[in-house]
Amino acid sequence: MTRYTDIPKPIRSGIVLIDPERGTPQRIIVLQFNPDTLERSLSPQTAGAGGDSGGGGSGNGDRNEALRLKGPAQEQWKFTAEIDATDQLEIAAPVGIHPQLATLEMLVQPTTAQLREASRLAKNGTIEISPIEMPLTLFTWGSKRVMPVRLTELSINESAFDVNLNPIRASLSIGLKVLSVSDLPADHLGADLYMAHLAQKEQLARGGLRGGLGALGLNGVLSR
């Protein structure tokens, strides 16, 4: 007889903010509910005329590049996450889900301290002020998918409120771009994590289903 305590606790997906220099987690965002669906798209960076290089013509140079890749594919993720304070009955929520929403929104916002520092540098006559660098963001979907990402889309639909108009339920549309070695410096922690993510894919691919040409009706067709 299976007991309730024997049922494995589900792994949650989430977002981890990492100090890129020290490699230590600064903040961990655990999604309350795992999304029901994930939309993933991969755009190959091909070297031929039909790829991202934008080259024209149909000379021998283009034909020689037809099967070449310039780098890792550009990978995008999209999913919908739900936040519901009524599901967290054991947690007091005097301001509803404002803290959860604010935590996600700060993924695309500089802090007030960073903005004040940029303003101070500008007043002191600094000729060039570097754009504000955010912490390294990781998206985790189980142990097989841990990857550096940049938040590209955050759309919030608040659908329920308490008597003080604090949101207590919301649906979030989240878009992420997987950051590869084409996006990050070679010595960046995110580049190392992407290589580990890609190595994980290679290992999984080696264990995939394999077939023979006979199943495709191609016996002898590919002989030269």
The string of secondary-structure elements, in order, is EEEHEHHEEEH
Over the alpha carbons, how many angstroms does the gyration radius reach? 23 Å
Major sheet: 7 strands, antiparallel
Q: Look at the helices and sheets and give the structural class.
A: alpha+beta
Helix percent band: 10-25%
Number of contiguous helices: 4
Assign an overall shape. globular
Biased composition (Gly residues): 48-60
Region (Disordered): 40-66
Description of the molecule:
The chain has 224 residues and is α+β, with helices and mostly antiparallel strands. The protein has a domain at 1-48 and 76-107 and 133-201. The chain has helices at 60-64, 98-105, 112-123, 189-206, and strands at residues 14-18, 25-30, 39-46, 69-84, 136-140, 146-161, 167-178. Residues 40-66 are annotated as: Disordered. Residues 48-60 have a biased composition (Gly residues).
Features:
224 residues; alpha+beta; seven-stranded antiparallel β-sheet
